Amino acid sequence: MSLGKAIGATIWASGDLGEMAFGASAVKVEEKSEKELGWLAGIVDGEGCFGSRRTQRQCFLPRFSLTSRYDDQEIQREILRIMGCGKIYLNGCKGRASKLYNKCPQFYYDLRNLKVILTAAIPIFDRCEFRSKKKEEYVLWRKLAFLAGEWYQIKHRPAEVVQEMELLHVELGDIKSRAIPVNEMYDYHWVALKKAVNALNGVGPR
Fold first, then answer.
1. Which of 112, 115, 185, 199 is most buried when burial is the number of CB atoms within 10 A of its CB?
2. From residue 127, how far is each of 143, 168, 193 by CA, in Å?
3. Does 128 reside within a domain?
4. CATH number, domain at 49?
5. How many angstroms separate the CA atoms of 160 and 175, rounded?
6. Domain range for residue 187?
7. 205 belongs to a structural domain
8. What is the DSSP letter of 156?
């Protein structure tokens, strides 16, 4: 059995996860506990990605993904159970002769079906309390999802809607690509970081 098939067989070992992976939400939002939602918010804050993609029809659609190493596959299983939708894929499972070979293959949870995002994912994410920049990303991602939903229902699609979706697409990309300018980094970034760490620890300058 190939590495890819072996990993796939492992992650789908639980019988009901296979059905949950291909679409409809299997669990009502009201049934999610605060503990589950708190765990989900934490893992999304650290490893999740609220992204977007351009389609061939010049529409912009939301996409959510979350990556973990193969030896952290229980994370993917738990995400799939809580979300009740989406699908798990494999990264880095090519043969050793391939340039894409990775000694540490990864799982990544992927959700891109617009209907499922609107009816299943957003109700769950709305109850999560994000604390990192994912909070800012989610606001834009959520708005893009509803705009895309409206776009598909309109027969004569106005250009303004597409322009607004494109703007949200760009803003999401800007958040992900934020970086400190190199000159600022070398001039005072390290000092600023040390001050920030001291402030977090509640101590004075050192």
1. 112
2. 16, 22, 32
3. yes
4. 3.10.28.10
5. 23
6. 3-200
7. no
8. S
